[in-house]
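Form 7-S
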Amino acid sequence: MEGSHSIESSKTIRPKWSSVMMLQQFHNVTTELVTVLQDQTIIERDDRIDRIKELLDQREEFLLQIKPPFSAEELQLGRQSMLLNQQVNQLLLLQKQEIQRDIKELIQKKKTSNKYTNPYETLATDGMFYDKKN
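Output:
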């Protein structure tokens, strides 16, 4: 009977320990995400975006495993993570705006290129000129 009691008590302690570890891992991944978003040395956008997606997926997994009740230490770590999360949101917004700006530039270049290769494409050839005299 005592053996089964120790198994039950380890189950009650383990989720609490697991939650602390998941919160710590969430915080660590969020910190790494901020670093990747701020890092200007990664020139290849595709590589950078792939790494960001990977870190966001990891964060989501850890976030799903974090369950209340929280200790004082967990609450403090959670507040720090929330501040980092706000920073992540701002950096992701900047990244999105940069991508949108590049897309607009690409569309404009395409239009300009089309006008150069076929300058008469946009002219209206719908009919005759009508001049009304009084």
